[in-house]
Amino acid sequence: MTNAPGIRSPRRLGRAFATAGLIMIPWLLHLSMSLPQKAMDSHWALGWVGLDSGEALALFATGRFLKRADNRCTLTATAAAALLLADGWFDVTAAAPGSEVALAIMMAVCVEIPLAIVCTVLALRLTRHPFPQSETTATGPLTAQST
């Protein structure tokens, strides 16, 4: 297997990331036992608007890249999927009991999770079968214009 440009040892880097994930387990256990059960946040609305803005931007960028048959849509689709799943998780876990949590679950099950699945499938398919590269994307727009 050849190394990607700029990466000396993908296996070593992979081990480092996997180790970092494992090291986080004790930290997560500590957080789960030490964080308060309830918290007040003065920037609650800003947080939700920011998260939803990120989703909108990732979905829009994915659409723009797809219209251009640009393989970078795999990156934006992956980001959109992650943001959608995070949004669904926080909507459900932060909702008040009763109709609010029922609505959050319905939104997660009917909108956020299915859309995240579509984004993930798109990214996986284009990773395996990328769009063919045109001369302008293969050489870069500046090089193509100067010739």
Explain how this protein is built:
With 147 residues, this protein is mainly alpha-helical. Helix content is 76%, strand content 0%. It has 6 helices and no strands. The chain starts with 9 loop residues before the first helix and ends with a helix. The model is unreliable at 143-147 (pLDDT under 50).
How are the SSEs placed, and which strands pair?
Layout: H1 10-34, H2 44-67, H3 73-94, H4 99-128, H5 135-139, H6 141-146
Helix pairs in contact: 2-3, 3-4
Features:
147 residues, mainly alpha, 76% helix
Order of helices and strands: HHHHHH
Largest sheet: none
Low-pLDDT windows of residues: 143-147
Overall mean pLDDT stands at: 86
- How many extended strands? 0
Our count of helices gives 6
| CA-CA gap between termini | 34 Å
Rg over alpha carbons: 20 Å
Helix content: over 70%
Q: Brief description of this entry?
A:
The protein has 147 residues and is an all-alpha fold. It contains six helices and no strands.
